[in-house]
Amino acid sequence: MQRAVLRCPTLARRTFTTKSKLLNYANLKLTFFHKPNCGLCDVAKEVIDDVLSSTEFKNEKIVVFGVNINDAKNNKWWKMYCFDIPVLHLEDTTNAKPLVVIEHFFREDDLAEKIRLFK
User: Which keywords does the record carry (predicted)?
Assistant: First the structure.
């Protein structure tokens, strides 16, 4: 019995690590508030894409939901963010962790750091 434990400790550890990695960002929800013809929004979208395609996050299943605040159905968000876009909400869908919000200017290092808060 001890032999099996001694021969397979890395396999057991690797299996556990893999499972926990799959759950790392499973409940992370990113919501990107934008509008057409917004240069800052275009730059922010590029920053988001670059961070999510980086080596650290490319294998994670992090999805970004886009909300065009100019759509009539998004009037609530227009009232809230008409002068603040681009805006990105980061939230954990399973618990009451505080919502993290990034507004105006997005930096790759800042976004990556904020995503790591949800590990």
Answer: Electron transport, Transport
- Is residue 69, in this structure, part of any structural domain at all? yes
Task: Return contacts of 99-106, CB within 8 angstroms, 24+ apart.
Answer: 104/40, 105/40, 105/44, 106/43, 106/44, 106/47, 106/48
Distance between CA atoms of residues 37 and 21, nearest Å = 38
Q: In which element (H, E) is residue 10 found? A: helix 9-23
Contact (Cβ atoms closer than 8 angstroms) between residue 106 and residue 86: yes
pLDDT for 24: 66
Q: What is d(CA 64, CA 69) in angstroms, rounded to the nearest whole number?
A: 15
φ, ψ for residue 48, nearest 5 deg: -60, -50
State the total domains in the chain: 1
Average pLDDT over the chain reads 82
Start-to-end CA distance of the chain, whole Å, equals 35
Neighbour-count burial of 47, counting CB atoms closer than 10 A to its CB (0-12 exposed, 13-18 middle, 19+ buried):
buried
